Amino acid sequence: MPNLIEIPQIDTEPLASVLRCLQLKQTSSDSFQANNLPQMKRIYGGQVLAQSLLAACNTLENGLTQVPHSFHAYFLQGGSPSDTLDLRVRRLHDGRSFASRQVSAYQSGVELLTMVSSFQKQQSGVDHFVKAPKVPAPGELQSAFEIFRTMSHPVGKFLGKTVAFDVRHVQDHLYTTVSAKPGNSQQVWMRPRSEVPAPSALVSRVLLAYVIDQVMMEPALRAHGLTWLTPGMALASIDHSMHFYRDFDINQWLLYDLSSSSAQGARAVGQARVFSEDGVLVAEATQEAMLRLPPEGEYIKSKWTFDL
User: Fold this and answer.
1) DSSP 8-69
2) Which CATH code is given to the segment(s) 15-122+142-292?
3) For all residues of the chain together, what is the average pLDDT?
4) Is the pLDDT higher at 132 or at 302?
C-alpha cells in the first residue's frame, strides 16, 4: 500500500487533537480508519467531512499533483464520539486532469455519511472573482475564545478548552444572546489558534472543510432571533457541498461571508463565500440542515439539541 498523506503534527492543544484525528490509518488499499475528537453528544460533522475528503485523496493515482476542487456530502446518521470510523472509498474516475471518488463513512456497520468528491491537476485558465465585503479587520473584533472563557454554561466551558480556531464575529455573536440586529447574513473571520506547520494546498482545503461547518447555519439562526443555546432547538446538517477555487494558507485570517436564503419545512439553507485577508475569493460552500423548534411553551430534549 502507498504511503498515507502526512498531516503536519504539533504539540499545542487543541489544534493538535484536530491534526491527530486527520492522520488516518489505512486498513486496505481503499479503506481507512479514523478516530474522533472529544465531543459532548455526537460527532462534529466537519470532522467527518475532512476525514472523508482525506480518505479520497489517499487513493489518487497522481498523489498530490491533484487537489480537491469540489465535493458534495450527505449526512445520513449521527455518530458517537466513542467509536472509530471506517472510511471506504470507491474509485469512480481517473483522467488526465480530473479524478473523482465516492467515500462512505461507517460506524459499527451503520453508514453515517456519503461523499462524492472531484480532483484536478492545478492548471492555468481564465480568472475572475467577486469582491469581498468591506468589514472591520480581525484585530478590531472580539475573539469567541474570550467569550467562551467567561461563560458559566457547560457548553461554553467545553468550547473554551476544545475550540481549535479563533472565530471573530463582525456582527453580534450568537452563542448566548439574540442578535440586537436580526438579519439573514453575517461575516466572521477565522484562523487556527496555533500555527499549522507548512500546510500544503491539500491540507489547507481539508482544514477549511473541517472548520466551515461551525458557522454555516448561523445566518439562519440570526434571521429568526435564535442562538446556539435556544432551549429545545434541534439542529443537524443534512447535506454539505464545497467548491475550492484558489490556493490559500489556512494559517492566515479568512473572511467567511455568510447568508441564508431560505428556511422552510423544518429545513434551513446556509451559503458561504470564503475570502483571503487580501480579498481574493478562495472557496464557496452551501449547506442544508434540519432546524426544528419545540411548540411554544414546550421543551423537547434530543441528541440534536445543543443545550444541556
Assistant:
1) P--SSTTHHHHHHHTS-EEEETTEEEE-----SSS--HHHHHHHHHHHHHTT-TTGGGEEEE
2) 2.40.160.210
3) 91
4) 132
> Cα angle vertex 13, ends 219, 237, to 5°?
30
| Gap between the Cα atoms of 91 and 102, Å rounded | 7
Rounded CA separation 259/284 (Å): 12
- E strands, 39-82, where? 66-75
- Are residues 141 and 191 in contact, defined by beta-carbon separation less than 8 angstroms? no
Measure CA 21 to chain center: 14
Q: What angle do CA 146, 150, 154 make, to 5 degrees?
A: 115
Could you tell me the residue ranges of all domains in the chain?
Answer: 15-122+142-292
pLDDT computed for residue 297 by the predictor: 58
* Amino acid found at 153: H
**Between these two residues, 38 and 88, which has the higher pLDDT value?**
88
For residue 142, give every residue at least 6 positions away whose Cβ sits within 8 Å of its Cβ, in sequence order, or none: 168, 169, 173
- pLDDT confidence tier of residue 303, bands split at 50, 70 and 90: low
Identify residue 233 by its one-letter amino acid code: M
CB count in 10 Å sphere of residue 64: 12
CA 190/CA 140 separation, integer angstroms: 13
Structure letter (DSSP) for residue 8: P
Per-residue confidence (pLDDT) for residue 155, from 0 to 100: 67
Give the per-residue pLDDT at 170: 97
pLDDT above 60 (res 63): no
* pTM of structure: 0.93
Tell the burial category of 142 from Cβ atoms under 10 Å away from its Cβ (0-12, 13-18, 19+). exposed
Do you find a cis peptide bond into 38, omega within 30 degrees of 0? no
Of 54-63, 108-117, 265-274, minimum mean pLDDT range: 54-63
Q: Please, which residues bridge with residue 242 across strands?
A: 71, 285
Are the CB atoms for 252 and 277 separated by under 8 Å?
yes
